[in-house]
Amino acid sequence: MLDQIAAPQFRVDVPSAMTLRVTATVEATTVAVRGEIDLPVLGRLRTRLGEEIDLAPRALVLDLSGVSFCGAGGITELLVAASEAHVSGVPFAIVTAGRAVLRPVRVLGLERLLPIHRSAEAAMDWLAVLPRLRESERS
Fold first, then answer.
1. Considering 34, 82, 103, 118, which has the largest number of Cβ atoms within 10 A of its Cβ?
2. Do the beta carbons of residue 52 and residue 18 sit within 8 Å?
């Protein structure tokens, strides 16, 4: 007969290794992420990005240039955010030049699904052109 192990009656809080900073301007809202995107912080990241998309900014930029680690769940959250922004009609771009995000995106072949730019300037330039590209696709 196997012994049963009872679940602990208390919650263990893991200190967050991720910080978020939101900056809103007329052109775009930027969510800057610093630290590690792993399991304990995914809910916080999903909630913040969902709230920003719900506010329907002119554009949403996710700045991951300060991310030192991005696990599989983090990559999933990027895909979810890109999809939700698209469905909501919010132009969306990701900024990063770091290996922590670029490597898993490349290994998984997600470059075409995630609008990644190496600088905030490049992302803003792309977002400025995006409405014209969408118009030409409809014509």
1. 82
2. no
Q: How many angstroms separate the CA atoms of 38 and 7, rounded? A: 23
Give the containing element (helix H, strand E) for 19: strand 18-24
**pLDDT tens figures, 98-119:** 999 999 999 999 999 999 999 9
- Long-range pairs for 30-34: beta carbons < 8 A, 24 or more residues apart: 30/60, 30/61, 30/62, 30/63, 30/120, 31/60, 31/61, 31/62, 31/63, 32/63, 32/65, 32/66, 33/62, 33/63, 33/64, 33/66, 33/67, 34/66, 34/67
Antiparallel, parallel or unpaired: β 29-37 and 60-70: parallel
118/106 Cα distance (integer angstroms): 14
Note the pLDDT tens digit of each residue in 48-87. Answer: 999 999 999 999 999 999 999 999 999 999 999 999 999 9
